[in-house]
Structures are given as structure tokens and as C-alpha cells.
Specification:
alpha/beta, TIM Barrel, Lyase, Ornithine Decarboxylase, Chain A, domain 1, 7-stranded parallel sheet
Length: 390
């Protein structure tokens, strides 16, 4: 088996970062400030951090290290291997595995001091049999219908004795929608079911849940998306500015500029046609780098044209918002820079794909997805530049 330590990395090493097609800048100071804002909004509850999926694409090691320095002492991941990495970065922290207990993994998790979030009676029985009195969390389903014990199973677990539990938790279905009646139903249901385990800490609120008017903070909040700059309360009315600082910035290099004659087409399947004399910049980035193909912009109306129901991608070139042109390729995309002064855009210049007016939520809306997917799809070929401290 190939040793991962000897396998090399796809991302450019620092010595060659200037040759990368794109640069992803991650502001660890902003990440920590966002955690502090979430902690303040959590009231008396402890504020943890969700760092699954490579800390939402920002890099789990640097994110955990920075957040630990800021004061965070509890982290949530999805898979055991993420938990082991998080434990290495924060040995004194409590690490929870949201996806539960893989069969046969109990002893390894217990030996590493990692706690699974047990989501079934079978998992609970295996953990107690194999891990003894090692603590774990218990997941009660209050409406998501994915993982977690049903109300009946929670009653059985309580009656039989669940053993040492450090946390009882559930997950909101629609906390980003403050007026959704599901929120009140889940809060009530969780309050009732968690009472079956007296003295055990409780957790329900994710990023959006922290900002709900009901303040369902219980003993521990679990922010994720908001930590990385996403708006945790996008549907609050009246609308208010995103309280989170932006964490990621993605810039791509211009490889070439060319003048396009009227009726010339750009990209695969000739899906974009110049409606006059246009100027197009080709960027050194594509869908292999996390730029969704759904962000392509076509205008020919041919059967091969991909015309998304959303507006399509754009870049900020010398401060000017410029739409994508044609289909996004694996390694390249074209941008219509006709509106940019000719001397303001040159080969080698960097243009902004995420950042400033193109914040992660705005980008997601243009690409036809959600900010979570944009962040967690950030490619591995970008040169990564970390700035800021806790």
C-alpha cells in the first residue's frame, strides 16, 4: 500500500504557488472572529465548531488549530478519519463523529478518545459492549428522518440504561427559515425526549438555529456554515446584513485575452455567441477546481446549449462584474470582459471568483446551488494561502 505521506499533494507547494492557475486565500482570523460571534450569540451555551468536509473546504488542520487557539474545545466531524486528524490538531478537545459508529470501530475510537454520535440501538449496544464506559453522544431524530433514534427507541435506551453519555443531540430540518412551524415542533419534541436522559448536556442548534428567535441553544451549539462566512440567517425579515466575516477568497489567473468577432462562438457545443464585437478572457480554472459546470452561460438557444434557470457565473475583473461565456471546461473557463478597460486586464492578472461582491452566498445563487456546496467543492489544485490568526 502506498504511504500517503509519500504520495505527494495535488496542491502546488509554496515554492511553486506563483505558477498555480488559482489562489485560494483563507482568512483564519475571520474564521475565529465568526466563531466568537457565534459564541456570543449562543448565550450561556458552549459554542463548538463543525469542521467536517475538510473544514468546509478551508483545510481541517489549520482551521482546528486556529479555532482551538481562539478557545474552541469541542469539534464535530462526519467520519472517523476526520476525527483522528482533528484530535491530532487539538489533543485536549472533545471530538464527535456525526455519522455514528462504523461496525467494528468502537475500540479504535475509544482508544483515540473520540466519541461517536450514536444513532441507533444497535450502535449503542455495540459501543457499550466494545467501549465499556467510554462516553459517547446520542442522536435523537426529531424530524429529519436520516439518522438518530426514534421516540420509541429513545424511550427504550433510557429504560435500559444508555451508559455514560456526554451529549444528547438532534438536528434542525429548516432552521434557516425562522417562520417554519417545524422549528417549534422540533424544539418541543427535543425538549421532551432529551429529558429522558437527565443530567446529560443537550445540543440542537446549528448556525441558523443559533439565530432563531426561540434561542434553542440548550447546552451546546454547533455552528458550521456560518463559521466559514455563509449567512446563518438568510431569510430573516426584515433582511439584515450577514453578521459573518468572509473567510475564503478565490482568484484565478488570466491566461489569454482575445477579441471576438460578431457571431463567433466560445467553448464546447458553441453554446455562447458574440452579439457584437466582444473581448473574452480565458482563465486557468475549471470544473476540476470546483467551478460548477452549472455556472456556464449560454445564449445560442441550440439543443446543445446549457441554459440554467439561474443567472450563471461571473468574475470580478478590475472591479467590474463580468459574466462567464460558454461552457466551463475541466481546466478553463471564459469570461466576457468587454466592459473592462483594455489596459486594466492583461494575461497573468488575477481575477476574483469568490470575494467582495461575489461572496459565497451570491456565488451559490449564480451557480444554482447553496454556499455549503461551493465551499466543500473548492478544488485541490489551488495554491492555498492562509492569513490571519486567532
Amino acid at each position: 500500500m502506498l504511504d500517503p505521506a509519500k504520495a505527494g499533494h495535488v496542491a502546488p507547494d509554496p515554492a511553486n504557488a506563483d505558477l498555480a492557475g488559482a489562489v485560494l486565500t483563507i482568512d483564519l482570523g475571520a474564521l475565529c472572529d465568526n466563531w466568537r460571534a457565534m459564541r456570543a450569540a449562543s448565550g450561556a451555551a458552549e459554542c463548538s465548531a463543525v469542521v467536517k468536509a475538510n473544514a468546509y473546504g478551508t483545510g481541517q488542520g489549520p482551521a482546528v488549530t486556529a479555532l482551538r487557539a481562539a478557545g474552541c474545545r469541542t469539534f464535530f466531524v462526519a467520519h472517523p478519519h476526520e476525527a483522528f486528524l482533528a484530535k491530532a490538531a487539538a489533543p485536549d478537545a472533545t471530538i464527535y463523529v456525526l455519522n455514528g459508529l462504523p461496525p467494528g470501530a468502537a475500540r479504535r475510537l475509544a482508544a483515540a478518545g473520540v466519541q461517536p454520535v450514536l444513532g441507533s440501538l444497535h450502535e449503542l449496544a455495540e459501543w457499550r459492549r466494545e467501549a465499556g464506559d467510554a462516553p459517547a453522544a446520542l442522536h435523537i431524530d426529531t424530524g429529519m428522518e436520516r439518522l438518530g433514534l426514534t421516540a420509541r427507541e429513545a424511550g427504550e435506551a433510557a429504560a435500559q440504561g444508555a451508559g455514560p453519555l456526554s451529549l444528547v443531540m438532534s438536528h434542525f430540518v429548516a432552521s434557516e427559515e425562522p417562520d417554519n412551524p417545524l422549528n417549534d415542533r422540533q424544539i418541543t419534541r427535543f425538549t421532551e425526549l432529551s429529558a429522558l436522559f437527565p443530567g446529560t448536556r443537550r445540543s440542537l442548534a446549528n448556525s441558523s438555529g443559533i439565530w432563531l428567535p426561540q434561542a434553542p441553544h440548550f447546552d451546546l451549539t454547533r455552528p458550521g456554515y456560518g463559521l466559514y462566512g455563509g449567512n446563518p440567517a438568510p431569510h430573516v425579515r426584515p433582511a439584515r446584513p450577514n453578521p459573518m466575516r468572509p473567510v475564503v477568497r478565490l482568484e484565478a489567473r488570466i491566461l489569454q485575452l482575445r477579441d471576438i468577432a460578431p457571431d463567433d462562438t466560445v467553448g464546447y457545443n458553441a453554446s455562447w455567441r458574440a452579439n457584437g464585437e466582444r473581448r473574452v478572457a480565458t482563465l486557468s480554472v475549471g470544473y476540476a477546481d470546483g467551478i460548477f459546470r452549472s455556472a456556464s452561460v449560454g445564449n445560442t438557444g441550440s439543443p446543445q446549449t446549457h441554459t440554467p434557470p439561474h443567472m450563471g457565473g461571473a468574475a470580478l475583473v478590475a472591479g467590474v462584474l463580468c459574466p462567464f461565456a460558454g461552457k466551463i471546461s475541466m481546466d478553463l473557463l471564459a469570461v466576457d470582459v468587454t466592459g473592462v478597460p483594455r489596459d486594466a486586464a492583461r494575461a497573468g492578472d488575477m481575477v476574483t471568483l469568490i470575494g467582495d461582491a461575489l461572496n459565497v452566498d451570491a456565488v451559490a445563487a449564480r451557480w444554482g446551488t447553496i454556499g455549503y456546496e461551493v465551499l466543500t467543492s473548492l478544488g485541490q489544485r489551488h495554491a492555498r494561502h492562509y492569513v490571519g490568526t486567532a
